[in-house]
Amino acid sequence: MRHGHSLANQQGVIISSPERGLADYGLSRQGQQQLDRLLSIWHWAVPDRILHSDFRRTSETAERIAGHFGLALDAEPRLRERHFGSLEGEQDDRYAEVWASDSRDPGHHQAGVESVVEVAARMRAVIAELERRHNGESILLVSHGDPLQILLTALEGRELSRHREREPLSPASIIPLPSAPAVPGGG
C-alpha cells in the first residue's frame, strides 16, 4: 500500500530524508479522507499484521488501518522512501530528472540519490524475510510510491530501469501480491 495523500504531496516537495520525514509531513486532510473511504469499502483480506515505513505519512496511514482492525504495528525502516539526496526539499517536478537517469542506469547516484538497484535490494529483502518467517499470513506493507514501483518491477522480473513504465501508484492505493512472489536475485 502506498501511504495516503501527504503534506509533502500537497506542498509538492521532495521529502525523503529521515531527518525530515520521520517527524514531519504526515497525512493531509485529503489523505485522511482517502483512508476513511478506503476503510469503508475494504474488500481485501484483513491483514494479520502491518509493517510500515517509519516516516510520518506512512506511520499515520498504518495507524488508521491498524486502529480500524485492532492490529499492532511494526515499523520497518527498509520500507522507507527512496532517498533523493541533494534534491531533498526541492519541488517534486525534480523527480523527472532522476527517473530519466534511472531509465539509462538503475545503478546511478546522480545528486546523491539512492539507486534503483539499492532500493530494489532492500525492498526484496523485506519480502524474502516475510516469506520465510510469516508464510501464509496476510501482511499489509505501507510504503512510498517510488520504492513500491521499484519493488513491483523487480517482483515482475522486469528490468529495474523500466520501473517508471508501470502506472504510478495513487496515494492510499493497494496492490495485492501473490502469496509467494518470486524474489529474483538479479535486477
Q: Which runs of at least 5 residues are low in confidence (pLDDT < 50)? A: 180-187
User: Given this structure, which CATH class is correct?
Assistant: Alpha Beta
Number of domains: 1
Distance between the termini: 22 Å
Shape: globular
CATH topology: Rossmann fold
Strand residues, percent: 5-15%
Over all CA atoms, what is the radius of gyration? Answer: 16 Å
How would you write the strand order of the largest sheet? Answer: 2-1-3
Number of strands: 3
What is the residue-mean pLDDT, rounded to a whole number?
94
Q: Count the DSSP helices.
A: 7
> Which percent range fits the helix content?
25-40%
CATH architectural group = 3-Layer(aba) Sandwich
Helix and strand sequence? HHHEHEHHEH
State the fourth-level CATH superfamily.
Phosphoglycerate mutase-like
Structural class: mainly alpha
* Main sheet characteristics: 3 strands, parallel
Protein name: Histidine phosphatase family protein
Organism: Halomonas icarae
Biased composition (Low complexity): 169-187
Region (Disordered): 162-187
Secondary structure blueprint with pairings:
Elements lengths: L6 H5 L6 H4 L7 H12 L8 E4 L3 H14 L3 E3 L19 H10 L11 H18 L5 E4 L2 H11 L32
Parallel strand pairs: 1-2, 1-3
Helix pairs in contact: 3-4, 6-7
How is this structure best summarized?
This protein is mostly helical.
Describe this protein with a few key phrases:
mainly alpha; globular; three-stranded parallel β-sheet
